[in-house]
Structure formats: C-alpha cells, structure tokens
Amino acid sequence: MIDLRRIAEGSLESKPYRWAVIDGLFSEADASALASTFPSDHFKRQAGYGGDKVFDFRVRSLIRAGEDSISHSEELSGEWRALGHDFLSHGYRAAVSSLLGFDLADTDLEVNVFHYPAGTSHGAHPDHRDKIVTHVLYFNDSWNEADGGCLTILGSGDTRDVVRSVSPVVGNSAVLVRSDNSWHAVSPVSKSCRRTRRSLTATFFRSGSPITMWPPGDATPLYDYDASPWRHRWGRVIRRLKWR
Predict the structure, then answer these.
(1) Using CA atoms, how far apart are residues 77 and 1, in angstroms rounded to an integer?
(2) Where are the alpha helices (DSSP H) in the chain?
(3) Is 84 helix (H, G, I), strand (E, B) or coil?
(4) Which residue in 61, 168, 193, 205 is deepest, having the highest Cβ count within 10 Å?
C-alpha cells in the first residue's frame, strides 16, 4: 500500500528541528479505498484541557506498542489490513531508518488511528521524550483548509509561529523527529465542519518505554464512531471493557 521509496528517498528539513513532508504515499486507487473505508470501530475519547497541552480527539489502536499483530483486524477493510501489515514490515522500518540516517531496529512501534470531530484540536507541543520519531499520515478524500485541522510545524510554542502547514488529505504525511523544540499542533477544526479530520500516527518509541495511549489495565469503554457528514456522534457502545 505505502510507496516506501517516497519515504526512504525523502529529505529532512533541519530548522527549526528535523522534519519532513512526504506526499504521494499511495496509488490513486489505494488512496480512494483507504479514505472510503477509514475505521469507525473501537474508538475512545482522549481529551485534556488543563496544563501545558490542550487536546481532544477520538483514537483507535491499529498496532499496540511492541506487538506484531493488527488490533481488531476483523473489523477492518482489506485495504486497512494491508496497510497494517505494511507498518509491521521490515521494509517500512528500513525506509524510515533510511530517511533518518539511523537504525530503528531496536525500537517499539505503535500505530493509532484518529478522528478529530468539529470543534476539536491538539495544542502546541513537542512529543514525549520516549518518542524517537512520529510519522503522521492523513486520510480525508478532500479538505477545506478554512475548516482548520491542518498539522502545523511550529518555530516555537506559539501556534501563530507557523513554519509549514500540512493539509489532512489522503497521501499526505509528515515525519517529526522528536526534540525539546519539536513544536507542532493541529489547528482547531471549525465547529461548523461537517466531516472529521482523519489521521494515523506511526510512532517509534525507545524500547521498553511506558505505554501512555493504551496503558495496561485500561478499562475505558470503546465505541463505534459515527462520522456521518451531517452529524458527529458516538454510536453503540461495544460491550467490552478491555482491548483483549
């Protein structure tokens, strides 16, 4: 599914930190199929409004940290199962290693899928110290940038200090190498937006790092997410309190 050459042959910017924008990741047919079958099962809400970082989104696991299987693969389309296997492949890890110039062989990979409904955002932040690099991929078939929802590469913790903005259209992606000044954000999705911002993060962690998105014993109820263009609401509750 992923054109790994686009990653391996990409180049990193060096200012204000190491980052890259890589587009054209999928064929036209695969891009269309991935956008139209974006997952809607087994989501939970993550939100925080205090402290240094404000965020609100809906998240589903695709690959748990350090594991070699796809979460709830039976609920996914064939295209999304194929995409999951791409992330688990040696080729994907080798392509990102080639881009970075160092080997990711001894790291743990976690992959998560996100819906950002109308009115949500992710405030300016550098990533957690246990993260080495994050590859962010997008899956909207089209997007009006006036509705917000763009990834912003920032020169500082000020959300107005925008170096580059990336639209969440399928095939677009960004690579963010973690540092103390790797500031980035998701601009607020307009409250009048009639679609969700759809994305995925593939994050390489230092081996043995604590798992923050899906901690052991997490009993948060999981939901099917109704992302119909005319409304954003939680659907039926999946009557499970654990992932497995």
Answers:
(1) 13
(2) 4-8, 28-36, 78-88, 90-100
(3) helix
(4) 168
